[in-house]
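Contributing new complexes? Match this layout with nicotinamide-adenine-dinucleotide.
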Amino acid sequence: MKILVSKETEAGELRVAAVPDTVKKLIGLGHDVIIETDAGVAAGFPDSAFEAEGASIAPAGLGDSLGEGDILFCVRRPNEALISGLKDGAVVIGLLDPFSAKDALAPYNAKKIAALAMEFTPRITRAQSMDALSSQSNLAGYRAVIEAAALYGRAMPMMMTAAGTVAPAKAFVMGAGVAGLQAIATARRLGAVVSATDVRPAAKEQVASLGAKFIAVEDEEFKAAETAGGYAKQMSDEYQAKQAELTASHIAKQDIVVTTALIPGRPAPKLISKEMVESMSPGAVIVDMAAANGGNCELTKPGEVVDIGGVRIAGFTNLPARLPADASALYAKNLLNFLPLITGEDGQLVLDTDDEIVAAMVLTQNGETVSDRVQ
Ligand code: NAD
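Output block (do not edit by hand):
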């Protein structure tokens, strides 16, 4: 097959959907790989590194190769011009932001292009190596703590020096999924005293196993808060009020708060009110990892670091892109691992929706939007 890799066009998107290592493996599998010029530069992979592994480099916009590709690998949803230039029946695989993709899917259907959303990779054992949400969230959780440490005007670990003792930072992680658990582990490694909360009971043991204290309203609703897919349910207003009451006094004492709480397909739950921010000491830092989904903090401004009475709230909207080399390498590996599921024995494209992983990820096929999760 001819596999195309485009250069990302969204502002601040530094990742790329293939790295030299995955190109080598794709070519080893018998595919041709065509990389748009400079696609990997921002992530530290120049055209020459791809060429060295056997890829061809196409001009900006992919030139004549665009209409010849069987599959387009991308990170974010490509622009319409790129989709319109693909051949009929091609496949596009990327982080297509499926929950809000409805209107963006018309050009795919016009050309009978199959759009596959990496976000919809099911959370089953067989799909773990393809799970891009996990690979990216893990890096993002790490990076969130690094950003917090850089914004925080004090040291994270306890330091006993001849000139006096520096107290360890107190860090609180809200949402202990993939990103949150990595944030806990990173904050612990940096020497902070860490606590965490989540609405899913399974998170309790995981938080404790990382040496952090678990804080949550553990009522009947909490015991039933996990969906079959492992995600959190939207909690009732009553639960959220109890949760806010419990966490308010805790947040007031924290130096660093990292929020990661998400509910698939919905705006992020608001966990930190203006009053809670005002209760924190000047110098404290909040990194709101849910900023792109509306934020977990009422005062978060997506894409900005705001200062509220000395408390800084960072609303980075694309933390994985702040580690573009590793984020690209892991994402590219997720795509490589997925490819066999849509490759027939003769090495040609087969979109087999009898496979539950493929079926979950397909948004459009044969000119129709087939996923009922697209809104
Ligand atoms: P996510 O990014 O959707 O959400 C982040 C966290 O926020 C979740 O832990 C969620 O429970 C929590 N949350 C939601 N509302 C909250 C609230 N009001 N207060 C506090 N926390 C709140 O989650 P994720 O990182 O994608 O992980 C979800 C689950 O899926 C986890 O249990 C994870 O271990 C599991 N998972 C399984 C696999 C697999 O292959 N089996 C792969 C990846 C993740």
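Reviewers usually confirm one structural detail per submission. For this one: Residues 123, 128, 131, 133-134, 137, 174-180, 197-200, 202-203, 230-232, 235, 260-264, 269, 271 surround nicotinamide-adenine-dinucleotide (CB under 6 Å).
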